[in-house]
Write a structure and sequence with these properties.
The structure is a single chain. This protein has 249 residues and is mainly alpha-helical. Helix 3 packs across helix 8. The chain folds into 2 domains: 68 residues, Alpha-Beta Plaits (2-Layer Sandwich); 143 residues, no CATH class. The protein has 9 helices and 2 strands.
Length: 249
């Protein structure tokens, strides 16, 4: 009943909201009503306010389902994060740095490795189009243009960016046709392709940070943009104080 209600909720939220779920505990036999069921929900949106509003409505749906079935509902809050808030001043700074620092060329072995992976990927043609490169390209080379579009990826970088100015950068660390979260990305991360991309990212971040340290006007401009975007709003940690911090011994 809760999942039915949640699916109808999709018609009454803004178009940027995403509501994902999976039933983690649903019973042990098809002919027996389980004494306990559990579902894990994951809400995404392009603003923290939209996430919190949708989450509150999901909790009401759960309580309503419990009333309809004369059962009890327990809520466990697992975590949360803010949307990203990229800074154009810092983005332009890093773009300039990427053009200044030459990218280490790919070896024949690395290109052959990427080609073998791309031949196994149904997303290869789309990958080339996404980065504006012709078919036959196996690994990306050179800086791209700055992207201003937001995405639905979940990251605590957004929390940092609501406290201080910040940006996110990408470097080429896998073959062009690799699907996200795939074994192909894992394979490239374990060889020199991934290592080269990691080293380039480290160089770009270090040089960009050094520029800010040596020229305070860059920071002042970035901070002014940050203050304008925040418009007086303050960062509030989305994870309640009573939620235990996970740790391993």
């Amino acid at each position: 009943l809760m999942n039915v209600g949640a699916n109808y909720l999709r018609e009454h939220v803004t178009s940027d909201v995403r509501i994902h779920y999976t039933i983690t505990e649903g019973g042990t036999a098809p002919n027996i009503v389980p004494d306990k069921a559990c579902v894990w929900y994951y809400v995404r949106a392009l603003s923290r306010e939209a996430v919190e509003d949708t989450y509150a409505r999901l909790v009401k749906i759960a309580k309503g389902a419990a009333m309809m079935t004369e059962t009890e509902v327990e809520e466990e809050f697992l975590g949360g994060c803010y949307n990203t808030l990229n800074n154009k001043v810092l983005a332009n700074l890093v773009k300039d740095t990427m053009h200044e620092i030459p990218q280490e060329p790919w070896t024949d072995e690395e290109i052959a490795f990427a080609k073998a992976l791309n031949e196994q990927s149904p997303q290869y043609k789309a990958g080339c189009a996404a980065v504006n490169r012709p078919e036959g390209t196996q690994l990306y080379e050179g800086p791209m243009e700055i992207e201003t579009a937001n995405s639905y990826g979940s990251t605590d970088v957004g929390d940092v960016q609501h406290i201080v100015p910040g940006i996110m950068i990408r470097t080429a660390t896998y073959n062009i046709g690799a699907p996200g979260h795939s074994w192909q990305i894992t394979a490239c991360s374990g060889m020199s392709i991934g290592e080269k991309g990691m080293n380039r990212a480290a160089q770009v971040m270090a040089v960009s940070a050094l520029k800010v340290l040596n020229d305070t006007s860059i920071y002042e401009a970035a901070k002014a943009e940050f203050d304008q975007e925040m418009a007086g709003k303050k960062y509030v940690c989305p994870i309640p104080a009573e939620v235990p911090v996970p740790y391993t011994k």
